[in-house]
Automatic annotation (TrEMBL):
Its EC number is 1.2.4.2. E1 component of the 2-oxoglutarate dehydrogenase (OGDH) complex which catalyzes the decarboxylation of 2-oxoglutarate, the first step in the conversion of 2-oxoglutarate to succinyl-CoA and CO(2). Residues 590-634 form the Transketolase-like pyrimidine-binding domain. It is an enzyme of class 1 (oxidoreductase). This is oxoglutarate dehydrogenase (succinyl-transferring). Residues 4-42 form the 2-oxoglutarate dehydrogenase E1 component N-terminal domain. Keywords: Oxidoreductase, Thiamine pyrophosphate. Residues 248-509 form the Dehydrogenase E1 component domain. Pfam families: 2-oxogl_dehyd_N, E1_dh, Transket_pyr. Belongs to the alpha-ketoglutarate dehydrogenase family. InterPro entries: 2-oxogl_dehyd_N (IPR032106), 2oxoglutarate_DH_E1 (IPR011603), DH_E1 (IPR001017), THDP-binding (IPR029061), Transketolase-like_Pyr-bd (IPR005475).
Amino acid sequence: MWRSSHVSGGNVHYVEALYEQYLADPESVPDEWRSYFDQLPRPEGSASHDVPLSPVRDQFYQLGRESRPGRVVAAADSGENKKQVKVLQLINAYRFRGHQKANIDPLGLRNPTPSPISICPFISFQRLTWTPSSKPVLSFLGIDKAPLRDIVDALERTYCRSIGCEIMHIVDTEEKRWLQRRFESVRSAPDFSADVRKHVLERLTAAEGLENYLASKYPGTKRFGLEGGESFVPMMDELIQRAGGYGTKEVVIGMAHRGRLNLLVNILGKNPADLIDEFDGKKVIERGSGDVKYHQGFSSNVMSPGGEVHLAMSFNPSHLEIVAPVVEGSVRARQDRRNDEEGSKVLPINVHGDAAFAGQGVVMETFQMSQTRAYKTGGTVHIVINNQVGFTTSHPLDARSTEYCTDIAKMVQAPIFHVNGDDPDAVLHATQVALDYRQQFKKDVVIDLVCYRRRGHNEADEPSGTQPMMYAKIKDHPSARSLYAKRLVEQGVLSEESAKAMVETYRDDLVAGNHVANALVQEPNASLFVDWAPYLGHEWSGDADTTFDMKRLQQLAARMCEVPDGVDVQRQVAKIYEDRRKMQAGGLALNWGFAETLAYATLLDQGHPIRITGQDVGRGTFSHRHAVVHNSERWHHLCSAAEHGRWSAAFHHS
């Protein structure tokens, strides 16, 4: 009733009048009504807004009867128009629930729901027939007055194949329509060129080749391999290259263990010889903790269509998901350094595991910060490497209380694309839409890469002890690279010999210790990243001169106690500032809060920027800081005005 009460029968006269106004001048009605009227069916050949009232009147009548039976104002009854309305409702059913039928599980273990045709109430209760008919019923998805069966086929291909879209929870109509157009216009399967598909196969070959090489050279050694999720490598390659085309200068990546070594070698350009030395125990650790190889970070520059892009892989401990807010903080700092207020020049990518994404509270906390003034970064691309088992738990009823591991992202209305990891073309399309959405709307987006884990939690683990049925199926399941190579050969994109040559070339490069990240810049542009050399190699116990000129300190203390004219300070706060004036004059001993703010003042005076963020930092957890002075009479208006700006300075006088 809440969804349809505005078009109930009782409102029919009002809405008809509004619709007449819309027909005369579409811009004269509110945006939400204009969006609603734009979706109504139009007779064939009619002009943009030259539409009779019968379609809208019939829809109001139908919705009114369903939402408020017995209180409907009679309206003209047209069976054909009612059918058109039902078809529109069917289209929405696919948009809402098509993902539940989509073929997103490479192993086929997921039990999809029936087609939206059978679950749509307008089919069950209104008896809209689905016999193959050549009679045109509606223009949709670029089909001009198509038969119903063609519309259903287009919907099935768009929403029920290798990509399951969850976008209808988004409130913003513009965002929702943008996403619908991106998927519906190409039926979620764009026609990629032969060169693009060959490149995807080459990246899949690299992903599989590294794992096979390490498995043969170091059998049973822990590496948290990517086998089963190899499509992650071409996905990351596309994200970085496409972001570079937008003018992005830095990409900061956070991820846990799974696939980390593969990404370091095949995307960031870590030399395979260095990785082999780590496996052989030959690497010398001069400083630091000497952490395991699948925790370590890395940085490099790669070439993109828009020029060089600096990549930074954050170090990550075993604490799952804790790197996510670290990445956001690093990105925000880099954006501030570049004066990148929109978040166009620095892109955060956080890679998650399925069980951790659903189970770790820091994921929710990171999403909660994503649109706040102090922490937003212009949107994060979240990738879930969903191996459907976590550690040992595969049954969803034992793993979480939601349908998908990604449902937590709906709290910020992030679009979610579930994609079959064995369909690299679908992975590529979902990746492109995700990055374009982030760049267009500056909000978070989630790609759920549904794949599997060919080996155990690590290579020393035997998974069939807890997942016998799953691993019986995995044992005979061909890799994503094998399936894709076979498809390209069958479609005549390349020869079988060329596909095999990719495998041999990659292995030869590994054995020779050559770089295998094909976009790596060997002589990077140093201006894209910070030179940390001045901060390295120092003794950690070095002394520092912390003295400060007393006269200047007194001047700063006096300035800190000034309250701007016209600002009415709350009574207790006024007392704090009165005491600080006495402290500044020497009539009262300095307390902790005043000493702290004095320390900040000396740093600012010497040109060192200070940024303190958090809900309570202005006042201080113990009400000791009061570095922000609020006007007790006008604070509400000041807050409203401030919402339009980005507050990045540490202290403000309001």
